[in-house]
Amino acid sequence: MGITVPQINFSIIAPELIISAFALVVLLLGVFFPRTGKNDYLGYVSLVGIVVAFLYTFPIMGKSQYAFNNMIVADGFGVFFKVIFLIIAFLTVLISIGYARRVDIDFGEYYALIMFATLGMMLMAAGTSLITIFLGLETMSIAIYVLAGLMRGDRKSIESALKYFLLGAFATGFLLYGMALIYGSTGTIILEEIAAYIKSKPELLRSPMIIMGIALLTIGFGFKVATVPFHMWTPDVYEGAPTSITAFMATGVKAAGFAGFIRVFFSALGAFQPDWIAIMWLLAVATMTVGNVVAIAQTNIKRMLAYSSIAHAGYILVAFVAGNELGTASILFYLLVYAFMNIGAFTVVILLGKRGEENVLISDYAGIGFKYPLLGASMTIFMLSMAGIPPLGGFMGKFYIFSAAVKAEYYWLAVIGVLNSAISVYYYLRVTVFMYFREPEREITGLTFSPASVVAVIISVWGVLYMGIFPSDILALAQRSITGLL
Amino acid sequence: MLDYVWLVPLFPAVGFIINGLIGKRIDRRLVGWIGCSAIGLSFFFSILLFFELIQLPPASRHHEFEIFEWVVSGDFRTVIGYQVDPLSILMALVVSGVSFFIHIYSIGYMHGDPGYPRYFTYLNLFVFMMLNLVLANNFLLMFVGWEGVGLCSYLLIGFWFERDSASNAGKKAFVVNRVGDFGFLLGIFLIFTNLGTLDFTEVFHKAPSLDVTLATTIAILLFIGAAGKSAQLPLYVWLPDAMEGPTPVSSLIHAATMVTAGVYMIARCNVLYSMAPIALTIVAVIGVATAIYAASIGLTQNDIKRVLAYSTISQLGYMFLGVGVGAYGAGMFHLMTHAFFKGLLFLGAGSVMHAMSGELDMRKMGGLRRKIPITFWTFVPATLAIAGIPGFSGFFSKDEILWQAYSSSHGHFLLWAVGVIAAGMTSFYMFRLLFMTFFGQCRAPEEVKKHIHESPKVMTVPLGVLSVLSIIGGYVGIPHIFGGGFNKIGEFLAPVVGGHGEVAKGHAVFSFEKVAHAAEGGGATATAHGLQSASMEMILMAISVIVALIGILMAYVFYIKRPNLPGIVAEKGKTLYTVLINKYFVDEIYEFCFVDSLKSLGIALWKGFDDLVIDGAVNGVGHLTVGLSGVLRKIQTGFVQSYAFFMIIGGVIVVGYYMIRAIFY
Fold this sequence. Notes:
The structure holds two protein chains of two kinds.
Chain A: H1 14-32, H2 40-55, E1 65-67, E2 72-74, H3 76-102, H4 108-126, H5 130-148, H6 155-186, H7 191-200, H8 208-224, H9 233-240, H10 243-268, H11 273-296, H12 301-322, H13 325-351, H14 368-371, H15 373-387, H16 393-407, H17 411-437, H18 451-469, H19 471-481
Antiparallel strand pairs in A: 1-2
Chain B: H1 7-22, H2 28-55, E1 63-73, E2 76-84, H3 86-109, H4 116-135, H5 139-157, H6 164-195, H7 200-206, H8 212-229, H9 238-241, H10 247-256, H11 261-268, H12 270-275, H13 277-298, H14 304-324, H15 328-355, H16 368-371, H17 373-387, H18 393-407, H19 413-438, H20 446-451, H21 457-472, H22 488-497, H23 500-504, H24 512-520, H25 522-561, H26 565-572, H27 574-581, H28 586-635, H29 640-664
Antiparallel strand pairs in B: 1-2
């Protein structure tokens, strides 16, 4: 028996390596050169790191190369997600500069943890073995647990971190157990080998052990992307966490969850599609409906956006059920546009707060549209995009998702999706109505807009408009990215 | 160079954005400059494109430029793209050119209006949309432009929205246009479902595969759209009311450009129409009926802008008569000359209003010829042009249409005869307008009289330019009987609308059968046929000129020679006069048939059905949703234990489902 020397190819994981290196640098800078109340420079260093990592995604674009004993791959799918994560991380750091100082969490750790979480996300998307994906997931999750509770003086922040940690650990149990059962049934952790093994042994298709594994994986991933009924942590955690981290969670963690979810279910477990399709259908419907219906009753905008993020996970599951090429491509498209509109919305939430007065009630938005016209217009764009109004990116995303469902002949699912989308218009427009048609009950004064956050709003508006008006390029890119996956 | 076609609509878009965003905060003069130079640049680039295009051999004068793919989903592919061909470039030239002069005129006319920046913003948006409409290379983008100009028309009719009549007129225009757009949209849907594409080139390439019934249906549906936008029977009712808008708007949108969109659309879809003779006949009959109907109303109106409005409807009828007999080039020719002289007539009327402190009633005018001479001397050629006096632009284009109405294979003697009678009415009411306004004694009240003054240069220069165009604009389409080979516009448009080389040689456009017949009979017969049709054309032309002169003469007798005559005639033919001055009571009939009955139906549905059933259902669902929301919210206790508990329940369901499936299937 010979020992195979692992094939090492660092260029494949160059973005991950760069992000890690910069995270460590920022961490050390924060320790050795702390400037209390003036730690914005750490944010700029992080931005540089993210941009450099982004540049290093170019050499691995358009390739399909395995490394580290087939544990990790640089393929279109992984790289597309890496780009999404890096954009999300970039925007998150942008909106943190200023905000982190305002809520007294601008330590080196803050920026370093964002980058470590990004590292975990990238590993999840690039991982081709159950272990890599699990490692990525945990790297990301642990960083996020800490980030959520970073506002140590704030009881809600601590509650948020603790709840997320407890339930997250619980869900990880399901996930890991599911992976173990699949490994036990197939004898391998490499996704493609799992698929090949199942193909060679058709009797496995009826094996309760592997199907149990799939069920547990459904729960585990379902928790990460916040599907109903594994969603209950979301509003509490999103509400309590620092707003910048909420934006990061709602977009990055969700995208990473879907990256792993899709990779495992389509690459390794595609043969079981008939088994998981009905349950996914049910999860999609429940997730959309509960998310949208409960969002209506919210008075706190962060909670409202939390439920909205649940609903959006439901839309993405619709495409997941469709399972065809357009469906999978539309997930990538949707996650990108969702990142822009959601981070944009959270940025507006951040900008409307000031030290000691976060103004997170929807009623606080009364009259904002006239007082801060550009901010109001941006928020309107984000809200309309999330509601799916053309010509904004959110509309195109939903259009692709529902047409994928129709094409795969899941008519009812598409109908329910569209109805849900109609319900959602109510609570998204309510924000707009408050901004433009209500008299403010109290004056919100003395807001200082951090230039970095303003840049983030501009980028987000641009993203939402670009993807709404010129959707074809991005969709074509997404379609290229998933070749070989299905 | 042709790839730069996107620059043409770009400038108005930029002007719209700049004036829309900061128009209120910058100097007024700058607003006007931005608005005008945007259109000027767009005009300039249209001219460049035109010269570029005519360098090419006629057969290859077609260039498409795709800007980007908008939506691609399965078989469905929409592109935002423009095309340059003789038809679209002609429209682009007319639209940007006439717009440019009207924009300049507006600087003077709107001077002092508090909505000045808003006005230029809308006007630039309008030109942007109109250019999209005419330059689009597919039905979808054309429809975007189509709706866009409709929106701008609504906004500009209701520009002085504080006046009830203006905002109501805006609404009326919008609602009536919806009826037409509905037909247009259905036509587009039918095209897409049957041909699988909306791209013009592909549609017209594949169209011959359609069966005739389908092609006829599509053509009629598209014509309903055209009838709405171009104010044809029975959807014309919005256009007279549209005169509530500022006069340059009436000139630009409701005379020169937007209302001609329907004619352009039919010319663009000529392949479809030529496949559907029934649809063509409908277009021709509606066209000529509208022409005489609106002209007869025009005989009695006393509001200067209303006369011009009915005249516009009537002239649009001529254009539809032209395209309806298959003479698409002739229709487009009249569209162009009409844009010049009717745009000018409205601007002239605006100048009169300017002088008369806003007075519109011609009974209170008179004798203005010496007080505002420039306006008068520019008004005259336009009046002569519309009356069809030889030498002026309108003569050439109207005569071309009338000749085709008689001689084309889709034509008929009656179409020609009605057209000629309408032409007589046209010259009567136009000269009536001219005489009542500019001749005789001034009947204005003293205080108005004191203020009468000529308009500033910024208004009179565009008048001058357009009056030159009204005179010379017709010489691009000289009938062959005055010497062959001078019908430049027919030749120019031939690659798009087909067969117009023939027109210049004296054969009817689509009378291929006739030509074939002639050929069979041998060369001699063909020559004889050609000679016969030439002399026929001469005779018909002479008749229409005589009729026009009679109209002028009658107007002279009625309003200059014996000013008491109109009263006597009105008294004698009281019934007819009442019907005409009340515009055949059509507004009242519509009010009764559609508005009132729909309203009472609406009220019945509202009280009976809506309040009880729909509201019940909606409120029920609303309450249910909110109630459900509340219940679900209560589940959200905030306790980690209960969250974990629900996760377990969910987990049991998921695992249970999988296991049951694994075991039992």
